Structures are given as structure tokens and as C-alpha cells.
Amino acid sequence: MLKAKTAFIFPGQGESHSVGMCRDFYDQYPIVKETFDEASKILEYDLTKLIFEGPLEKLSETQYCQIAIYVVSIAVLRVIKQEFPNLKPDYCAGLSLGEYSAATAAGVISFAQGVKLIDARGRYMQKACLDHPSTMAVVLGLAEDQVLEVINDLNMPDSLWLANLNCPGQIVVSGTHEAIEAFVPKAKEAKAKRVLPLNVAGAFHSPFMSSAAKQLTSLMDQMDLNDPQTLLMMNATGQQEEQLDKIRQNLILQITNPVRWQSCIQEMESKGVNSFVEIGCGKVLSGLNKRMGLSGQTCCINSVKDLESFKNQVLA
Hints:
The protein is an alpha/beta fold.
């Protein structure tokens, strides 16, 4: 029987953010204010004010949303480490943007490096969206091979791709507006339960993000990263990675390639993880875990109330 293990998991960009997120942590834990202040100093603008006061339209822009979610994730992580100094995760993983939070939690990237990388990632990806007008859609009720069959049947090369494999029956595709418009009815004909166009800035996790990946590679190559202190699951492969050069490659690769989140979670479960702790804002990952029917438990810590509940579980 495998030894019971714990994984820290971190959210990506999407439905996770909101104006005022992390305010209760900020008011109660000085380390959160220190984290926000450190980020604002590096960024040279008041990120704290944007997170707490908005407006939501600005906070939702890729160049601001990504850095806001990253800073909130690390702020909450620091509270957890402060409150539970003996709690050491066996694995760290994050969905898309969240993979950089996971890399920080695993000791690969320092917080200061992470702020610079995510600030740049958000700006580069937003520019790529402007250069390549595009969008995404979520498909419910089809398997990966079925979605690929629809994509291939449409025969729109360099216009439509798999983007996220989130959980059984939930797959996201990226493409041009024309390609997504053509994809929706065809996926429904293939018996998809629902196909929903997403309100996003562009085709994330597709070749349209190549310019962002190239620019971020140049920035990351200037940084001295550290070997992981915790096993790190990688989006691009759905597998754990321990070699620093491969981690660097995969952090870039996920910008233009599908996020294999379902594989990440199921691989960790197969290695004995029976406790997943979602850290940051929102409860998206907890919802995905529920849909996967995992045998272990998942708890979400995105409020002080959640932290108190977690503390009761740990002390029980």
C-alpha cells in the first residue's frame, strides 16, 4: 500500500479572480501585506490597490490578472507555511499560470523571480492575443480522441488546437474566431453535451502564443533557478519532473501546448497522494477533482475561514 501523501495545487487564470480577493488574509496576517508590498515594489505600481479596489475590467486583463493571481497564491502559501511549519507537501502542481506558483512553492523560482516572470508572461501573452485575434471554447461530454476527430474533420490547419484537458468530459480548444465558430456545431453533432465559447482574450496554450514563449524564454534564461525541493508536476507532460533544465523547458512549453491537468492529478493519485490542498483564489481545481472522482480529499484555502477549517482537520 502506498504511503499517504499531500499535494499543494494552485489555480490558473480564468474564473478564479475577483476584486477584494485575499482581503481577509491581508487584514489578519502581516506576511500577506509584506508579500503584496514586495510585489508592488518590484512592479513599480500599486498592485494591492488594483486587487482590492479594481475595477474588475482592468483586473481581468491578462497582464494584470496573471500577476494578481500569482501574488495572492504565494501570499496564502506563506500564511500556510507560517501556521503549519511542519506541513511539507510531497508534490506541487498548478494549472497553467498556477504552474509558476507551484514552481515557487517547490523552491525552483523565488518570489521576486516569479513576480518578474509572471508580469512579463501576462504582458507578452496579452500582446500575442492582439497580434492573433482568437478565442477558446470548452467542450463538455467528449473524450480527447473525439475532440481531436472533430478538429481533424474540420481540416483547418494552423487555426484550431487542443488547449486544456481538465478532467473527464471537460476539454478546452483554442483557435481563430472562424475556427471556433465552425467547431461548435460540429462538436454538438459529435454528441457533446455542451460547447461554450469562453470570454477570453485569445487562444491560450496554442501556437498563437509562440511570440510570448520566445520572449519569456529570453527572460528566464537570465535567471538562476534552483533544483526543486518538492516533486513538481508539469502541465506539458502530465508527469513529475526533477531535472531543472526540463522544468525550465516545460514552464515555457505549456504556453503553446495543451495543459494536461487531468493527467497531473491522476498521476499524483497513482503515486499515493490522497490529500490535495488548493491554495489561492477560487475553487476551480477542487471542482475538477470532484469531477475526477478521486478517492482522497480535496480542500480549498482561499479565505481565513477556510484556513480555520483546515486547521481543525489537521489537528483532529
